[in-house]
Amino acid sequence: RMEGLGFYTLPTGTEYRGELKDGMFDGEGELLFPNGGRYRAVWHRGVPTQGKYTFADGLEYKDKKWHYCDGYDRRFYTEICSGLKPAGISQLTNRDPPRKIPVGCYDCGDGFYNPETRVIVDYKRRFLRNADDDEHEWIIQTCRKAQGKTTEHKPNP
């Protein structure tokens, strides 16, 4: 079994770097996610006992007194750090410019969702998961959809 300092890459592309004991995360270590986020923690027998998640853009998650994008301040983290855009120029996502969404698909935060196939792929177009009914409804009601308009060919009468 794995012991000492090391790293382990999960099938999802998430990588663990840190202390291992008896084949489990044990001691100080961090998970590095494919989207650029990281979770640094102290682990005991594979379970984090204390830790901190940092998003890819540097925003640190706080489980208490979390005020990011709440009802009073709806700015994205990049807007907090760099300021708002001039009037008339919208910033649609924290990433500016936003990712180009494939036609007919939605950007669901960790990848693109195709409602016809109900498949979510990451931003490099690798399979992530199939959406269940609840996730499908949430994505359709909440997430940004591709702006491209499909036009249907209409024959001349």
From TrEMBL:
<keyword id="KW-0966">Cell projection</keyword>
<dbReference type="GO" id="GO:0031514">
    <property type="term" value="C:motile cilium"/>
</dbReference>
<keyword id="KW-0677">Repeat</keyword>
<keyword id="KW-0969">Cilium</keyword>
<dbReference type="Pfam" id="PF02493">
    <property type="entry name" value="MORN"/>
</dbReference>
<protein>
    <recommendedName>
        <fullName>MORN repeat-containing protein 5</fullName>
    </recommendedName>
</protein>
<dbReference type="InterPro" id="IPR042814">
    <property type="entry name" value="Morn5"/>
</dbReference>
<keyword id="KW-0282">Flagellum</keyword>
<dbReference type="InterPro" id="IPR003409">
    <property type="entry name" value="MORN"/>
</dbReference>
